[in-house]
Amino acid sequence: MPASVHVVAGVLRDAGGRVLLARRPVGKHLAGLWEFPGGKCDAGEAPVDALARELREELGIVVESARPLIAVPHRYPEQDILLDVWQVSAWTGTPHPHEGQALAWVEQGALAQVEMPPADRPVIAALALPDRYLITPAFEPDALDELLAGIERACRRGLRLVQLRQPHWPRARLADAARRARDACREHGARLLLNGDVQLAMVLGLDGVHLPARIAAGLAERPLPADRWLGVSCHDAAELLHAVRIGADFATLSPVFPTPGHEHAQALGWERFAELVVHAPMPVYALGGMEGEDVDAAWMAGAQGIAAIRALWS
Ligand SMILES: Nc1nc2c([nH]c(=O)n2[C@@H]2O[C@H](COP(=O)(O)OP(=O)(O)OP(=O)(O)O)[C@@H](O)[C@H]2O)c(=O)[nH]1
Ligand SMILES: [Mg+2]
């Protein structure tokens, strides 16, 4: 089997947050579809250099600053590719179609409706997800008010993705908490996912669910509609693969570092984390021993960002 082709592409946003797409010219692979500008790495060329070269050739701009967003392995009938997408945060020049391709600035929320290559689907998820994912700490059921106050505080600090996780609470109490947390999150434009309980999440109209690995293992297909978020906790290559199979939108992969309460688990470290994530065609959060300042390291290892209890709670 030929090795996969390394493709780099850039996400450029205008002042209004719209994303630049280019239309693949007639006669090329996947002609007519809209894509993120970019192309194949030359032999021996570093991805960041290839990105700069492709965006200069295709758009006539000079990349000043970029960081990895997501790398998606994808198998086309013609070839296997690794679609390595970067967020370009600064450039000079104005993007022009240097190769006769049509260009369009598209609202983030409209991307899912645009005809893009199949490999781009996880990229749209990555663009819609934040770089920090809060998981609530364990509370006693009688500390519901304290839990909600913490969620409020987190939203006010800018957290935009929250997992309500209280696996030992009675269901009625959990439903109370989820309802109130849902309203608090909504008020701040944050999404609330419920750990483990698909049915309750649907009844309450939450933004989605996050499944522990052992629950995901019992599923053969996606347990909720496409307009909700499905996150899955993973710890190895097999669990990541299974999460993809059941249509997860994203995963957490842990533990990157040792954490109290999980001393028995073998920590992955960044190197192993990166090896596992590059095979996963979905956004993956780094979890386990994360600190707020680890977001950069997580990006460099191919992660969407960090997931944490302690570090994001206070
Ligand atoms: N640039 C880009 N390519 C993508 C995206 N999604 C996706 O599946 N691809 C695939 O990745 C490959 C990129 O090849 P390309 O044709 O753009 O390469 P290139 O710019 O170096 O052009 P060339 O090989 O014609 O010189 C194609 O098979 C394309 O279909 C995307 O969002 N952007
Ligand atoms: Mg190209």
Automatic annotation (TrEMBL):
<keyword id="KW-0227">DNA damage</keyword>
<feature type="domain" description="Nudix hydrolase">
    <location>
        <begin position="2"/>
        <end position="129"/>
    </location>
</feature>
<dbReference type="InterPro" id="IPR022998">
    <property type="entry name" value="ThiamineP_synth_TenI"/>
</dbReference>
<dbReference type="InterPro" id="IPR047127">
    <property type="entry name" value="MutT-like"/>
</dbReference>
<dbReference type="GO" id="GO:0009228">
    <property type="term" value="P:thiamine biosynthetic process"/>
</dbReference>
<feature type="binding site">
    <location>
        <position position="29"/>
    </location>
    <ligand>
        <name>8-oxo-dGTP</name>
    </ligand>
</feature>
<dbReference type="Pfam" id="PF02581">
    <property type="entry name" value="TMP-TENI"/>
</dbReference>
<dbReference type="GO" id="GO:0046872">
    <property type="term" value="F:metal ion binding"/>
</dbReference>
<protein>
    <recommendedName>
        <fullName>8-oxo-dGTP diphosphatase</fullName>
        <ecNumber>3.6.1.55</ecNumber>
    </recommendedName>
</protein>
<feature type="binding site">
    <location>
        <position position="38"/>
    </location>
    <ligand>
        <name>Mg(2+)</name>
    </ligand>
</feature>
<keyword id="KW-0479">Metal-binding</keyword>
<keyword id="KW-0235">DNA replication</keyword>
<dbReference type="GO" id="GO:0044716">
    <property type="term" value="F:8-oxo-GDP phosphatase activity"/>
</dbReference>
<dbReference type="GO" id="GO:0044715">
    <property type="term" value="F:8-oxo-dGDP phosphatase activity"/>
</dbReference>
<dbReference type="InterPro" id="IPR003561">
    <property type="entry name" value="Mutator_MutT"/>
</dbReference>
<dbReference type="GO" id="GO:0006260">
    <property type="term" value="P:DNA replication"/>
</dbReference>
<dbReference type="GO" id="GO:0008413">
    <property type="term" value="F:8-oxo-7,8-dihydroguanosine triphosphate pyrophosphatase activity"/>
</dbReference>
<dbReference type="GO" id="GO:0035539">
    <property type="term" value="F:8-oxo-7,8-dihydrodeoxyguanosine triphosphate pyrophosphatase activity"/>
</dbReference>
<feature type="binding site">
    <location>
        <begin position="35"/>
        <end position="38"/>
    </location>
    <ligand>
        <name>8-oxo-dGTP</name>
    </ligand>
</feature>
<dbReference type="InterPro" id="IPR015797">
    <property type="entry name" value="NUDIX_hydrolase-like_dom_sf"/>
</dbReference>
<keyword id="KW-0515">Mutator protein</keyword>
<dbReference type="InterPro" id="IPR020084">
    <property type="entry name" value="NUDIX_hydrolase_CS"/>
</dbReference>
<dbReference type="GO" id="GO:0006281">
    <property type="term" value="P:DNA repair"/>
</dbReference>
<dbReference type="InterPro" id="IPR036206">
    <property type="entry name" value="ThiamineP_synth_sf"/>
</dbReference>
<dbReference type="InterPro" id="IPR000086">
    <property type="entry name" value="NUDIX_hydrolase_dom"/>
</dbReference>
<dbReference type="InterPro" id="IPR013785">
    <property type="entry name" value="Aldolase_TIM"/>
</dbReference>
<keyword id="KW-0234">DNA repair</keyword>
<keyword id="KW-0378">Hydrolase</keyword>
<feature type="binding site">
    <location>
        <position position="58"/>
    </location>
    <ligand>
        <name>Mg(2+)</name>
    </ligand>
</feature>
<keyword id="KW-0460">Magnesium</keyword>
<comment type="similarity">
    <text>Belongs to the Nudix hydrolase family.</text>
</comment>
<dbReference type="InterPro" id="IPR029119">
    <property type="entry name" value="MutY_C"/>
</dbReference>
<dbReference type="InterPro" id="IPR020476">
    <property type="entry name" value="Nudix_hydrolase"/>
</dbReference>
<feature type="binding site">
    <location>
        <position position="24"/>
    </location>
    <ligand>
        <name>8-oxo-dGTP</name>
    </ligand>
</feature>
<dbReference type="Pfam" id="PF14815">
    <property type="entry name" value="NUDIX_4"/>
</dbReference>
